[in-house]
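Work Package 4 report. The design task specified in the project plan requires that, given a folded chain encoded as structure tokens, an amino acid be chosen for each position. We show below one input record used in the internal validation round.
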């Protein structure tokens, strides 16, 4: 399928560059006809006039159209991945994860502390020090679970006191060291998609969250799922998250119609019934709230079905985007209506079932 089919509307994209919206990173590329240069949506350079811009789904398309990459925002460095200039820092953080970093340390690696801070803020929505702290906490929880005592774990991971460690652990995971020791943490990772970054969370028990990031603070998201599952949440990777990323990539390439992942759909019996029905709506098709209500045996409960649809925590894999109003119009989607529209368009384009008479009017 054509990659541009997943782009937001030109108005939304222009607004994003006016707002220097880094949430749109990786979703589109903006090129300026008058300068021949292309940029990321969040570029700090002067905002070009509306009539001079052209949008592309990828840097390849912008290059093919004869544009050159901006020297300021470096659009060829993949959004969300570690840029070349930061690799020495990541290598050192990997080999000594508990190390504390001063400005002088960063400067000795030839890095500008301001630039490093800005990068972490833009890419992780947290300060460089908060990032280091969550990494240290993740490793400390591993230590606790492999049976090390709390004090040596705290000291080994760069915490200066037991109380400081307890406080950090409670702040980031909502748990005491004893809880953390006995509870399998949920790991959270960013997954990049053509519709923007998503947060995926899970552990051996399965995938429990998959949502578009969309301006929400990372720590807030952590808090919510930590409370729900009563397990500590930590940034980190897990095979179930890697598999989710792989299957999502195939889905967006039009090579996958169903997801084969262990899912945690904990909810009330009504919620579970609705979410289960969502999973049975075939790829490329849609159902109305009313049809879904009938399916769960509560034909008068289409409003409650709508709410439960909106409470779905597993975007895309539990396809709440396939539910539309009875007249076929789209309506609310937590990830944004434009994403719902693009997901349905992508499925229509991919579907071998062929023609679908689906009006894709935006109706908020
Ligand atoms: Zn730029």
């Amino acid at each position: 399928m054509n990659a541009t089919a997943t782009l937001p509307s030109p108005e939304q994209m222009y607004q994003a560059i006016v707002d220097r919206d880094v949430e749109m990173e990786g979703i589109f590329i903006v090129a300026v006809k008058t300068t021949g240069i292309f940029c990321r949506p969040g570029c700090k350079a002067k905002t070009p006039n509306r009539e001079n811009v052209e949008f592309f789904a990828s840097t390849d398309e912008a290059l093919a159209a004869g544009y050159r990459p901006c020297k300021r925002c470096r659009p060829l460095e993949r959004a969300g991945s570690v840029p070349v200039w930061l690799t020495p820092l990541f290598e050192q953080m990997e080999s000594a994860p508990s190390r504390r970093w001063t400005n002088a340390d960063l400067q000795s690696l030839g890095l500008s502390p301001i630039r490093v801070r800005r990068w972490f803020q833009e890419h992780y929505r947290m300060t460089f020090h908060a990032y280091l702290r969550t990494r240290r906490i993740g490793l400390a929880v591993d230590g606790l679970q492999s049976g090390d005592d709390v004090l040596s774990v705290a000291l080994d991971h760069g915490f200066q006191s037991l109380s400081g460690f307890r406080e950090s652990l409670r702040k980031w995971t909502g748990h005491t060291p004893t809880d953390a020791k006995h509870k399998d943490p949920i790991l959270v990772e960013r997954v990049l998609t053509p519709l923007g970054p998503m947060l995926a969370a899970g552990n051996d028990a399965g995938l429990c969250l998959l949502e578009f990031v969309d301006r929400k603070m990372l720590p807030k998201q952590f808090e919510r799922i930590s409370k729900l599952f009563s397990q500590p949440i930590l940034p980190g990777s897990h095979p179930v998250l890697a598999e989710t990323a792989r299957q999502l990539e195939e889905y967006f390439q039009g090579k996958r119609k169903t997801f084969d992942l262990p899912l945690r759909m904990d909810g009330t019996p009504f919620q579970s019934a609705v979410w289960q029905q969502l999973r049975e709506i075939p790829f490329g098709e849609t159902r109305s709230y009313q049809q879904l209500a009938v399916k769960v045996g509560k034909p008068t409960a289409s409003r409650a079905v709508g709410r439960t649809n909106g409470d779905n925590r597993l975007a895309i894999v539990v396809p709440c985007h396939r539910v539309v109003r009875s007249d076929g119009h789209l309506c609310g989607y937590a990830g944004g209506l434009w994403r719902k529209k693009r997901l349905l368009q992508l499925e229509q384009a991919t579907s071998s079932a062929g023609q679908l008479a689906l009006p894709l009017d935006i109706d908020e």
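Confidence is low (pLDDT under 50) at residues 353-364. Validation will be extended to a larger panel in the next phase.
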